[in-house]
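Researcher: I'm preparing a figure for a lab meeting and need a structural model of a single chain. I don't have an experimental structure, so a prediction will have to do for now. The sequence is pasted below. Please return the structure as tokens so I can convert it later.
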Amino acid sequence: MSLNSLGAKTTLRVGETTYDMYALSAVDGLEKLPYALKVLAENLLRNEDGANITADQIRSLANWDPDAEPSDEIQFTPARVVMQDFTGVPCVVDLATMREAVTEQGGDPTSINPQVPAEMVIDHSVQIDVFGEPTALERNMDIEYERNRERYQFLRWGQGAFDNFRVVPPGTGIVHQVNLEYLARTVFVNTDGDVPVAYPDTCVGTDSHTTMVNGLGVLGWGVGGIEAEAAMLGQPVSMLIPRVVGFKLTGEIPAGATATDVVLTITQMLREHGVVGKFVEFYGEGVAAVPLANRATIGNMSPEFGSTAAIFPIDAETISYLRLTGRSDEQLALIEAYAKARACGTIRHARLATPNISSSIYPPSFPRSPARSVRKTASN
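Model: Understood. Here is the structure written out token by token.
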């Protein structure tokens, strides 16, 4: 629970549901911040505890100087953690070991759980044994589950034993693409209290290209396994208030230009400018002309040009993509209402005519059920 010493807590009505939210207008200066820093500001307001996160930190962010070298430290609490299997499996092993230790001391092992939602996508260790035939996918999945039967039995146990933990099975897709199309909420909802709390979706992930989700207006970046495990257990990420580089987009993407052409041009420009350790934020009337697939590609390249994140605001294109990928009408209504409330970003870009650029996305429905897949190898 936030101390709410600055009186930022307010309500948002969407349809028949009322949400609590934290408004930036409560503190002079926060509404003038760049989009990415607004997300951090809301995060501080909502998690203010007087110890790790204080009102002075919030005021320091409100007085952010875009020309100053970073010097003020804040504590960022991501809404969720995304893991791939190479680093995620050891995290689950650590949680299981903690439960054993608690049991040995006479405590309740079920008290050990991730404190924020943690989602593991199994993709990094998957091998391809069969290819070039219609049944290749199914046969590769059968071989994968047989080869790593013990690991999948363990992960199935973990998904059932731990709260706030779920597994996306192999064969579904690469982690940052699954994050974009399925896991990202854009606006998160916490239902633990009497009134649901709405706030910006944020994440840290154990894949350097976690930044792909920046294309959806979700602030997130890659971290190491230890940092991800600490975040999973509720520890905030300590960071300096970052510098933000604005990248203004005007006009439209020329006919025949691909996402690769756009992203390589942007990468060249940002490398020349120097953005290591900074946030990059795209703005301007040209943002509306960039399809979501291209935004995700640009966000994906954030590690290549060196920034911590490369984010786009929430706008009509964001809503269209979320609808395309199967998000519910209720979720879409919440995202639009929240963005328009100016707690974080705004829907203000008119849709412009865009060239028909070929892009690749997965089907709107999730291709494979995690429960069904893991059950294939489970033994009683």
